[in-house]
Amino acid sequence: MRSIEDVVIDVDALRMRYDDVDVLAGVTFRARRGEVLVMLGPNGAGKTTTIEVLEGFREPSAGSVAVLGADPAHGDENWRAGIGVVLQSWRDHARWRVRELLDHIAAYYRPYLDGRHRKPWGTDELLGLVGLEDHAGARISTLSGGQRRRLDVAIGVVGRPEVLFMDEPTAGFDPAARRDFHDLVHRLADLEDTTVLLTTHDLDEAAKLADRILILAGGRIVANGTPDELARAVAGESEVRWTVNGQRYVHTTTESTKFVHELFTQYGDGIGELEVHRASLEDTYMALVRRHESDDPAVDAAARLGEAGSVLLEEVS
Predict the structure, then answer these.
(1) How many domains does the chain have?
(2) Are residues 202 and 243 in the same domain?
(3) Average model confidence (pLDDT) across the chain
(4) Model pTM score
(5) For the residues of the chain, what is the DSSP string, one character each?
(6) Residue 251 covered by a domain
(7) pLDDT tier at 104, thresholds 50, 70, 90
(8) What percent of the chain has pLDDT over 90?
(9) Host domain of residue 220
(10) What is the tens place of the pLDDT at every residue in 27-43?
């Protein structure tokens, strides 16, 4: 169980207002060391704005934000040496060669090796991590879109950050590259104890990566929990399918284990083609977004988050 000292991102009542529009309207959450948080939400929900505030690129209108114990809007270079950023796109340095650029960026971290910060990745090891070892000498302008995105990830992690922010990092990745990226994220979290906060529109990716999922809608967090917690809290029911003597049956229940046990007690070996289907993350996500769009009061209940980050989705009569 991680302690309060392990909290590396602490966001309380964060608000961002442009003219008379609240892009963020009271966002609150925490992230602990080594945790992978995935932020989901429709376009315009406030995901990118939240990350830009945490990175120190925007100053919030209200609320408090701390990353590695400091306000990002006033973080110094020593603080920034502990932060990694993978932007949605990176359009500079087209004439550089891949190895040269990574060597150059790694050099910026060396003055901050004061015992707190980790030593940057060796370039060869980093190229292997992101699958660019065969393109080390290539000019960046010659890379494909997927290769360029791998380089974006390498730039973000070159300094072995304590906290890594990634905004839709796998856009343009083919299935093999996406699988390699997932392995890299798990390695960073599990072996390097890096806290990762990323946004994605790929719900399957979110389910595979996340220790915890935050769902934003209308500038608010409407759910916060593990994929399983979210599915149980929103759907509550599982669909059980089976056959007896060639006849197909379907039943929905909130207690699938108990129901299946009763089936076997009654029919024994006569049960065939048994399947239990629980709500998917996509089902959960769509249900929450639709509730928000229809102003369902359950969304306001869902937004009341616990300190431990477990999901709170209360039924409101």
Answers:
(1) 3
(2) no
(3) 84
(4) 0.77
(5) ---GGGEEEEEEEEEEEETTEEEEEEEEEEEETT-EEEEE--TTSSHHHHHHHHHTSS--SEEEEEETTB-GGG--HHHHTTEEEE-S-----TTSBHHHHHHHHHHTTGGGTTTTSPPPPPHHHHHHHHT-GGGTTSBGGGS-HHHHHHHHHHHHHTT--SEEEEESTTTT--HHHHHHHHHHHHHHHHTS--EEEEE-S-HHHHHHH-SEEEEEETTEEEEEE-HHHHHHHHT--EEEEEEETTEEEEEEES-HHHHHHHHHHHHGGGEEEEEEEPPPHHHHHHHHHHHHHTT-THHHHHT---TT---------
(6) yes
(7) very high
(8) 44
(9) 1-82+161-175+192-225+281-317
(10) 999 999 999 999 998 88
Residues 6+ apart with CB under 8 A from 262: none
Distance CA 76, CA 196 (A): 21
